[in-house]
Amino acid sequence: xxxxxxxxxxxxxxxxxxxxxxxxxxxxxxxxxxxxxxxxxxxxxxxxxxxxxxxxxxxxxxxxxxxxxxxxxxxxxxxxxxxxxxxxxxxxxxxxxxxxxxxxxxxxxxxxxxxxxxxxxxxxxxxxxxxxxxxxxxxxxxxxxxxxxxxxxxxxxxxxxxxxxxxxxxxxxxxxxxxxxxxxxxxxxxxxxxxxxxxxxxxxxxxxxxxxxxxxxxxxxxxxxxxxxxxxxxxxxxxxxxxxxxxxxxxxxxxxxxxxxxxxxxxxxxxxxxxxxxxxxxxxxxxxxxxxxxxxxxxxxxxxxxxxxxxxxxxxxxxxxxxxxxxxxxxxxxxxxxxxxxxxxxxxxxxxxxxxxxxxxxxxxxxxxxxxxxxxxxxxxxxxxxxxxxxxxxxxxxxxxxxxxxxxxxxxxxxxxxxxxxxxxxxxxxxxxxxxxxxxxxxxxxxxxxxxxxxxxxxxxxxxxxxxxxxxxxxxxxxxxxxxxxxxxxxxxxxxxxxxxxxxxxxxxxxxxxxxxxxxxxxxxxxxxxxxxxxxxxxxxxxxxxxxxxxxxxxxxxxxxxxxxxxxxxxxxxxxxxxxxxxxxxxxxxxxxxxxxxxxxxxx
Length: 604
Known about the structure:
The chain is α+β, with helices and mostly antiparallel strands.
């Protein structure tokens, strides 16, 4: 009789498969809270309450007043892959809910003791279903308020190795609080309550004023400094939110909140677009902001990460430009002293594109059942992105520019008084806020850059050379020179080939009185050849060239005259679209507020 063949492949049991899935979905207590709160939001809740004990290991309870579930839905909600949010394959390409995988509840139940109690508003009685380590108990009727309550206790009781990897109760509770705050910021129209170990941590009421919701978490004083992002629209994309002043920049991204269709996300494309919208940013610092993106679901894939923290855009260039335009236009308006708030109409931020249009948090495989409390989904119209208005700057006089104020210019910030010079490099000013240092070289780089950017609207004036300069190049550099010739001519250069590998320079920009034209152009071509200039994520094809031209000229300029009389330079800088830093991210102005100085010197 032949011996049976050895078999190594077998099917996992349902409980084991759920625990494997739990490894992706349930990393820590905050992961459980995220999944349950998202289900509550999808269920149309107007109030969500999160209770925690011992960092979430002992108990996590999420209660909402959403649409609840019927008996049939409650019987299926703990089954793997049961969902009310996906019916056919096409639904994956137009996801409008926060949760949709149908793995959260069974995965959580497989590593905990879970009890779910739910009732629809139209039903007389509710239903309770429970599970211990993935083993489900019979369905029971229960008396309860409309909505859903889910209690998760003894998390990871049957996977002790996972439990050992958890941090202290304090740390885990901090992660949970951060997660609840994210959802509260994403949906200000929902009331959120967070209770830890029997103590109320916060209870933020529902509001349609996003600034009010932000103030609930960051404080009234900080919220008062917020700059409202001017809503920017592109085909299928809308950007809104608030920026913090550059003085609120951090050395980490803890104060960067980015929401995509109501979903907190971490995306490098958006991060880079924000920095480019600032026109660069001081190295080692990150801008603080509350950014809300509304994107047509068909243009974004939120199914690329198990925890849905990362996304993939179908047209990333449009997202990048929309974010850059919104940030840059907001900073430009703020620099001109214009009001950020929209007059006489509510701000659109509290209405992100994700508005639950289907059934409750726990799921079922059948067709979705409409909730009694539904909120409409925002439909974005294909619109053309409005390019930001560029600041009209006066022509650059030499050697020290003293701009003539334009009639529509906003009043300057509080009076600056020049009080000295530091190491013959920095100008020192005093104003009512404290002390400010200015780098004349970085300031000139910013001013020149913005004047060069004006060539997007009108050609810059050229200054013809009495004797044209001849520049000998090798074959590779000559090819680069011919490639960037249109951009250089846009900036005011006049160039022409003069022989096989010779470039004839006939005119230079009038705003750049260069002393060594050959050396300047040679270095410019070297930078382009070496690939040091970033040609992507720019607001216009000319921007990288303008940035490099401004940098090179500012590096060779003598700033002694500006240090002797820096006030005219400061006035010109403050008229710039983004006066805080150079195009490359170097600080132009460094404020030292009196409050910070008093704190450091421990002055009462």
